[in-house]
Amino acid sequence: MEVERDSHTSPPPSLFAETIPIIDLSNPDEELVARAVVKASQEWGIFHLVNHGITTDLISRLKEVGSEFFELPTTEKKAVAKPDDSQDYEGYTRNLQYTEGEVWAENLFHRLWPQSCINFDYWPKNPPHYRKVTEEYTREMKKLSERILGVLSEGLGLQREALKEGLGGETVEYVMRINNFPPNPQPDSNLGLPEHTDIIAIAFIVTNEVPGLQVSKDDHWFDVHYIPSAITVTIGDQILRLSNGKYKNVLHRVTVDKEKQRMSWPVFVDANPDVVIKPLPELNTDNPSKFKPITCKDFKYCRLLKLPVD
Q1: Partners of 111 in beta bridges
Q2: Residue 14 placed within a domain
């Protein structure tokens, strides 16, 4: 898809005929909620969830421990740094350069679930309550993600577990990425994250109040506005492929602010590395497969090296 790339700004107000959907999960009309989730995933690839069942207190504590980590001296943050020779993504990384084309961010990546894939060497020991808060948030996030995956499965006319099983069932991986985008005196020189679609299945994002996330729709960039207590959901490449193109993988990017620090806490739901990512077979009775089968690890390898996949 061709999109505007000449500016970090959103389109003029006249183009805001549509807004990113906001879905209230507490609505007793479950069929209405399900239709809204499916429609948003087909048309936008992004939506906000409110009244999602995760308490504002827990989200506040998650933000607090993440913020406290990034306030530590660099030497302490490097205690959980990504090793230079690592082929994996886990650990703390930093890239804060006034160089055009470079990103402006520091990040902390680590796996959350299943327990068999967790390496606590990449979980900060400071602040001391980081692990307790993050484990509590993981339990709640797992419930929420399985609910949304179930809705999306039924939106394909399939059993509620279809997408979860297509991603690996109980071996589906959950990954935390905390993004810190400090104030940048030269904000026009860098993006916090360049435009991309996520190579994972689906992401659940909370942020601080500083805007910066933008999504592309109909060849225009739209600001994703901050909604207190909301969780923003974005559809990734794996759901696009499993759904045989019915659900949209949203193109997005992150801008940085000259004066304000922006932070975000996405949890990525990711297929097991050995799972073959392909359109769910039940969908192929009416439409031919649009995507070739490929293991999750090979798919990521090709995407990261910008090699052809299909």
Answers
A1: 175
A2: no
